[in-house]
Design a protein that fits this description.
By secondary structure, the chain is mainly β. The protein has one helix spanning 2-12; strands at 26-35, 38-52, 59-66, 69-76, 82-89. It has a 5-stranded antiparallel beta sheet, with no helix packed on it. It is globular.
């Protein structure tokens, strides 16, 4: 059954080529918003908290601070409205899912930048 699902996903679902990123990275996601007849591009810049799923059902969660309020947004990797993903900083974290980041404020909420190879 799993091989059949994988075959259908590989054949019929179009995949986009985004740069490789993981938890702890600061990225900017550009996506389309439709308001009636108008279409405009909006961006969401924040820290990747997690990536989950495989293939066409893969999603990633981004968290940003808007004033003093934390805002999280989940994006499917194959969302047709996604235009591009830019990596601003590569972060160095020890976990794949950094949910502890939600409880940190101020200087503790900073993530060290990974060394470039």
């Amino acid at each position: 059954m799993e091989s059949l699902i994988k075959f259908v996903q590989d054949e019929f679902v179009t995949t986009k080529d985004f740069p490789e990123f993981s938890a702890g990275d600061t990225i900017t996601v550009y996506y389309e918003i439709r308001e009636g007849e108008k279409v405009r591009t909006q961006f969401f810049r924040g820290v990747v908290i997690q990536k989950r799923g495989r293939g066409s059902s893969e999603t990633f969660t981004i968290r940003k601070m808007s004033g003093t309020i934390g805002v999280e947004r989940i994006f499917p990797i194959n969302l047709p409205a996604l235009q591009k993903v830019e990596i601003n900083k590569k972060g160095k974290v020890r976990r794949a899912r950094i949910f502890y980041f939600r409880g940190l404020t101020g200087k503790k909420a900073r993530i060290k930048e990974a060394r470039r190879k």
